[in-house]
Amino acid sequence: MKKAALAVIFALVGTAWAGPEPTKPPPRNHEPLRLKNTFQNPEDVVRYYCARDASGFVFTGLMDSERRAFTSWKTVPDADGFFVAKKYDVRKARYPTKSPDVAEVDVEYELTGQSDAHGTYNPAPSGHRTVTFSLTRQDRIWRISGPQPYDLSPVILEGKFPIHSAKR
To answer: How do residues 20-33 score in pLDDT, each as one tens digit?
Structure first.
């Protein structure tokens, strides 16, 4: 009984001496890495890509395993800078040909600025940007086929990197 009482006293004293618990930054809810593409529709493939992009994973280096699983690209995107967006919206897929294995998905971005790896931040030249992703389905797997990686600028959400929104 005495040992239990002493343990409680030491625990209480230790807590009082330790002071308040340090505050943690709020979680940024980054999209987790997936190595296998199990999405059933083209919108979900684009949503996954945009979520990874929004967290900065495309700008800092899309993994080759992701490239193979989610795109038909031969290389990964390689850009010197990126757009900063307040938000983005993935639209419903369209099927522009008679084939059910070809789709297009528009993503509308509300841009706030442009930045780069050096931390340079400039206001966006235009507040809105629309990117049309082309997708093809082979062996029941939807993959992004366009735009090509060299034509695609990364877009990072400002909420994922508060330093950019503080510079505005």
So the answer is: 444 444 445 777 78
